[in-house]
Each structure stands twice: as C-alpha cells, then as structure tokens.
Amino acid sequence: MTFDIHKTLLSVSINRCIFHSEADFQHAFAWELHRQFPDASIRLEKPVATKEGVAHLDILVQSGAALIAIELKYKSSKFSAVVDGETYNLRNHGAQDLGRYDFMKDIRRLESLSESHPGAIGFAVLLTNESGYWKPPTTATTDDALFRLHDGRVLSGVADWGSGASEGTKKSRKDPLPLRASYPLEWRDFSSVQTGNGSVFRYLAVPVV
After folding, report:
1. Non-local CB neighbours of 105 within 8 Å, separated by 6+ positions
2. How far, in Å, CA of 76 to CA of 131, rounded?
3. Tens digits of residue pLDDT in 18-52
4. Is 36 exposed, middle or buried (0-12, 13-18, 19+ CB in 10 A)?
5. Please, which residues have CB within 8 angstroms of residue 76's CB and are 6 or more apart in sequence?
C-alpha cells in the first residue's frame, strides 16, 4: 500500500477547497481515502491500545499488514464565502496557543502508536486559514514559544509552557510534551477561496514513523 499524504490532500482540495468544521474536513478526507483504497478498512475515531493508554485516532487505515493513522486539525479565522452555491461562515477559533499544543499532542500520540505497533505510520495534519500558525513570531519570549509551528521550525525535545502562562491557559493542557524524534515543519498551499483576509488555506503535514 503506497500512501502519499500530499497527493491525498491535493485530491481533497480539488473537490473541497473549504470546510464548515473539523468534522466536515475529516469526512471529506476519509471519503478520499476510500476512493483511493477501496479495499482498505477505513475507520474514524477508532480506539487503539498503546503503551501509554488507549488512543482515539481520527482516521485509521488498515490494508493487510499496513497501518496508517491520521490525526486532523482544522483551525479557522473568521471568513465567509459562497462556493458552488453553498454558504460558508467560518468562526474565529482564536486561542492559537492551545491549537499549537493540541497539534503537538497529536504528534506525541502518533509516536506512542508507532512505538506500540512497529511498522505503523502516522501523519499529523493541520489545515488553517489563520496565518499566525505558519508565520514566524515577532518575539521569541511568548509563553507558547516551544509550541510554535511556523514554517521552517524543527520540533524536537520537550515542549512546555513559559513561566508566564496562566492556569486558565494551561487548564487540561498542563503536561509537557516530550517528542522522541525531530520534525522539520514545511507548510504547503491547500486552496485560495475568493479574496480577502482569511481566503488562503495552508496545511502542515508531519509524518511520524
């Protein structure tokens, strides 16, 4: 089974350049996987046992001995458009620091899967029209500096909050995230929907082997 995450995302973008929600994105992605691999088992939100507990994976693809896990995130800034007669009113998710933490937690979850299931391949994918995710920060002293996902950065080591992060910010996200490998980040274009602020969507796809 040969799987190319970028080819799959390109195919998704040709059919759907924008999504109402993360669930909408996940469904479109899973449908494209089914189209590419009609004989594979494709499951959404399937629990899988790992050494660190049960991981509920967004999408799990199984074909023979091949096991591919995909975690998807969709973070939007406020944007409205009509595409193919369908109206999209995206809300502003904000809280990019929490979005970054959650994405790195996806990578850590996929590492745990690969450690428990040798040969498994994982992909953490983030699709967004919020440029703050892919642009470098203007200062290096932010409390979420170690969770930054800007283009060209390499994720490695242990990511933790800065000393100034409030308890409210860290609520349910207090644990440091130790990564066992290094991950260079490369953002790619997904789609351009009409014009204006928030009209450009880009994605980050991080392979975890």
Report:
1. 173, 177
2. 10
3. 999 999 999 999 999 999 999 999 999 989 888 78
4. middle
5. 90, 91, 92, 93, 128, 129, 130, 198
Give the integer Cα–Cα distance in Å for 44 and 47: 9
**CA 189 vs CA 85, 106, 142, 167: distances in Å:** 24, 21, 27, 35
For β-strands 86-90 and 79-83, DSSP reports them as antiparallel
Residues ≥6 apart with Cβ < 8 Å to 20? 88, 90
Helices (H) and strands (E) in the chain, counts: 4, 12
In this structure, which amino acid lies at residue 32? E
Q: Would you state the pLDDT for residue 1?
A: 72
H-run or E-run covering 127: strand 121-128
**Alpha carbons within 13 A on the beta-carbon side of 109:** 22
- State in Å, rounded, how far the first CA of the chain is from the last one: 15
Q: What is the pTM of this model?
A: 0.93
Q: Is 95 left (phi over 0), alpha (psi -120 to 50) or beta?
A: left
